[in-house]
Amino acid sequence: MPVPWEALIPFGLVTVMFGAAGTLLNVSKRAQNQGKPPRYHIDAWDEMMMDRDKRLSGHIRGQSSNPAAPEDFATNSVWYTERSR
Ligand SMILES: *[C@@H]1O[C@H](CO)[C@@H](O)[C@H](O)[C@H]1NC(C)=O
């Protein structure tokens, strides 16, 4: 059976390039999420919780085990206003 050896170079290139793109996307997403897997299907509740986490820990993916909130937590919330039409 004839083997198309000349097709292996582009095949290898395509394989390596897909692998590089996927790995770079993985690294980029994890770097933005403090090394954790990215979140998907985020709803309004999740956004509120991530906003709270950001106010508690400084990052939307950060977590805190301290039972007492930091002092500025009482005043650093954002009051969302109604969007004008
Ligand atoms: C992304 O990287 C993490 C750890 O570095 C690994 O566990 C995970 O399987 C990778 N995901 C993909 C889709 O390669």
Automatic annotation (TrEMBL):
Asked if the keyword Transmembrane helix belongs to this entry, the reply reads yes
Broad class of where this protein is predominantly found: mitochondrion
Return the annotated region ranges for Disordered.
57-85
Determine the domain of life of the protein's source: Eukaryota
Q: How does it sit in the membrane?
A: Single-pass membrane protein
Q: Where are the transmembrane segments?
A: 7-27
Q: Which InterPro entries does the UniProt record give?
A: NADH_Ub_cplx-1_asu_su-1 (IPR017384)
Q: Which keywords does this chain's UniProt record carry?
A: Electron transport, Membrane, Mitochondrion, Mitochondrion inner membrane, Respiratory chain, Transmembrane, Transmembrane helix, Transport
Write down what this protein is called. Answer: NADH dehydrogenase [ubiquinone] 1 alpha subcomplex subunit 1
Q: Where in the cell is it found?
A: Mitochondrion inner membrane
Role of this protein: Accessory subunit of the mitochondrial membrane respiratory chain NADH dehydrogenase (Complex I), that is believed not to be involved in catalysis. Complex I functions in the transfer of electrons from NADH to the respiratory chain. The immediate electron acceptor for the enzyme is believed to be ubiquinone.
Q: What GO cellular component is one of the record's annotations?
A: mitochondrial inner membrane
Pfam families, per database record: MWFE (PF15879)
The family note in this entry says: Belongs to the complex I NDUFA1 subunit family.
